[in-house]
Design brief:
Oligomer: single chain
Radius of gyration: 28 Å
Strand content: 15-25%
Structural class: alpha/beta
Largest sheet: 5 strands, parallel
Distance between the termini: 24 Å
């Protein structure tokens, strides 16, 4: 794996650190020692001034933009308001994934809170497919529906929009996907921040985020102002799930949704949400993390649309009976288990193909197909193939004479351009740089395989298949402190556009042989090597002149709280009790400051966990005393006795410094 540590503009870094040091909002929240690293991380995220940094680090409802600034929302709110006044039934037409179902829940709930009546339609992935359909609009019109609102779809539904107009049905399209070259459909209102002429300040909302802005505008129109804050925070829970699951950038308004929504989820009272948290085994004693939402909540919601019908998700979030909520949550949990098994089945078939087909192993773009593979899981299976083989991958399900495919890509390869180069083979296709979906005659699959591989060979080299790990900064172990962890915590929640910071440390020493956990994970004990000690000694020399009364003096740095939160310093952490740690603080205060700081910092032994690294280390064993370079993130173990800061390994390399 290649490590990529990009440079940071030193002028912008120094300027931002200086501004943040004087910021009244952040004063006391970020230590002077952690400030340069935090400032560097912000600059890497394109945040270069104190005002932007403050908004990023302290998201608030006040940071939301007025909904009426989005083109189409005034007209949409007018029409929904009129439907509520006239007691017209409204149909909400949404997608079957997390974003679509959460958007349905948001808009349906808002309309009902404002006194209206709303039903919904979520298409079946296999039988109906994605986007608006003429026959559904015709059935709705026959049932007396005169207002249909699409959520998370419709921006290219030109024919359905014409059908609605012909039948006297008002159509409001709310979507976030990019419009096509022909503009937007002829609807009563089109709400999409990405449409031409829309001056809305933030363009990267998910479908549920756009639906939320419509709901926000409607509630401002019909509800008392005193109810707004409470209701907006309540809706944040659902918007946060969709925003994280849809992998839109966690910046701007999306960051407000995710941050406030995750905090609000800790106090969830909705029976469906509580039941979903139970089956996903997520504690409500603290706010869930974005990782828990992305990998434990979202897959269970998505499983309904992938394996069955997504109506169960809407009912789960709407039901009031806890017993029924638990029943529905258990069903989603089982569907997710079924999805995982189907995914494993396809991956086993892919691995068998690789074992028996040398040409597939040499492919620059992997194309694999199978009869009857479940169309609901081929997209996520393609993701797994890319992760496993580090090459662009297309997974195709053949259904008789038809075939349906989904692809995922690597950083260096624009997948949509590759698909467009074979456009004559498809009956339909779409996507972007890193993902695509399509349908084609099954007879065209061999030709597609040949042409995609040729396209990839003309644009990729073998070096492009080396996985790349982006690093945020190089640290020495002595720089990993409670103050830094506290500063990093302010960057959460992590996600697209705001990834969890990944650091590197060079020449760290392994104090004991690696421990294998559950046959697949490893646990290392690490301390600073010679390079880390040299850097730490320079830090000590630079601090000799610091006044003892300064808030940033080493004495303050060695407070009892710091000792409690930092990793245990003894090689055998179980040997030190908390009372002994506190006593050691008093002893340390009596020692020479220079020696005290150096020995305290450099005697720290960090626990470092390497998930799924056991096989790798068994092939290349490490011994106590070896020097290694590590790439890692910084976390915290909450164990009451042995907790503290710990490292989560992303990669390990034998250090060029050799033995310590």
């Amino acid at each position: 794996m290649r490590w990529n540590l990009g440079s940071v503009n030193s002028y912008l870094l120094a300027s931002l650190a200086s501004e943040l040091r004087d910021s009244p909002v952040l004063r006391g929240a970020v230590s002077v020692q952690a400030l340069p690293i935090l400032s560097s991380l912000l600059v890497r995220r394109g945040i270069t001034d104190a005002d932007s940094a403050t908004r990023f680090l302290t998201p608030s409802l006040s940071h939301l933009h007025p909904p009426e600034q989005m083109t189409g929302i005034p007209a949409a709110v007018d029409r929904i308001d009129a439907a509520i006044e006239r007691k017209e039934p409204i149909l909400i037409y949404g997608d079957y994934d997390v974003d679509g179902t959460m958007a349905v829940i948001i808009l349906k709930t808002a309309i009902e809170l404002c006194g209206g009546t709303a039903d919904f339609h979520v298409p079946h992935r296999i039988r109906e497919g994605y986007d608006l359909r003429d026959d559904v609009i015709e059935s709705a019109a026959a049932a007396g529906i005169r207002l249909i609102i699409s959520v998370d779809m419709g921006i290219r539904a030109f024919a359905p929009a014409e059908t609605a107009q012909r039948l006297g049905v008002d159509l409001i399209v709310t979507d976030h996907h990019l419009p096509g070259p022909n503009g937007v459909p002829n609807a009563l209102a089109v709400v999409n921040p990405n449409q031409a002429g829309c001056s809305y300040p933030y363009k990267q909302l998910c479908g549920a985020g756009v639906a939320f802005k419509v709901a926000q505008g409607l509630m401002q129109r019909r509800l008392a102002e005193k109810d707004h804050t409470r209701l907006l925070l309540s809706f944040m829970k659902v918007v946060a799930i969709a925003t994280i699951a849809d992998a839109v950038p966690l910046t701007g308004e999306n960051r407000v949704f995710a941050s406030l929504g995750l905090e609000a989820l800790r106090k969830a009272v909705n029976p469906g949400l509580k039941a979903l948290f139970e089956v996903a085994q997520i504690s409500t004693k603290r706010p869930p993390t974005s990782t828990e939402v992305a990998f434990r909540i979202a897959p269970r919601i998505n499983a309904a649309g992938r394996m069955d019908i997504a109506r169960d998700v809407i009912e789960l979030f709407s039901v009031k009976d806890p017993a029924r909520a638990r029943e529905l949550a258990a069903k989603l949990d089982q569907l997710n288990t079924d999805r995982q098994e189907e995914e494993r089945r396809i991956l086993r078939a892919v691995d068998e193909r690789f074992s028996g087909d040398p040409t597939l192993c040499d492919s620059y773009c992997i194309v694999v197909d199978g009869e009857g593979w479940h169309r609901g899981v081929i997209g996520i299976t393609a993701t797994r193939v890319v992760e496993r083989y580090n090459r662009p991958a297309v997974v195709i399900s053949r259904q008789g004479e038809e075939a349906f495919g989904s692809g995922r890509s690597i950083r260096a390869f624009h997948l949509l351009e590759a698909i467009e180069s074979c456009g004559d083979l498809f009956t339909r296709y779409g996507g972007h740089a890193h993902a695509c979906g399509f349908a084609l005659p099954a007879a065209n699959v061999p030709q597609l395989r040949t042409r995609l591989d040729a396209f990839a060979r003309a644009r990729l080299t073998l070096a492009d298949f080396d996985p790349m790990l982006d690093l945020d900064a190089e640290l020495t172990l002595d720089e990993i402190t409670p103050a830094l962890f506290q500063a990093l915590h302010m960057l959460e929640p992590y996600g697209v556009g705001n990834p969890e910071p990944v650091f590197s440390a060079v020449g760290v020493q392994l104090t004991a042989p690696p421990r294998i956990l559950k046959d697949k994970h490893v646990k290392l004990k690490l301390r600073a090597g010679e390079r880390g000690r040299a850097v730490a000694s320079q830090v000590v020399l630079s601090q000799v002149s610091v006044d003892e009364s300064s808030p940033e003096s080493p004495d303050r740095e060695l407070s009892a709280v710091a000792v409690l939160v930092t990793p245990n310093c003894h090689p055998d952490s179980a040997a030190i009790r908390r009372s002994e740690k506190l006593a050691s603080t008093t002893e340390l205060r009596t020692e020479n400051r220079e020696l005290r700081t150096a020995s305290w910092r450099n005697s720290i032994v960090f626990d470092a966990l390497g998930w799924n690294m056991a096989e790798r280390l068994q092939q290349s064993p490490l011994l106590a005393g070896d020097a290694i370079d590590i790439a890692f993130t910084i976390g915290h173990n909450d164990h009451p006795e042995y907790g503290g800061l710990e490292l989560s390994l992303r990669d390990i390399k034998v250090s060029v410094t050799g033995q310590v």
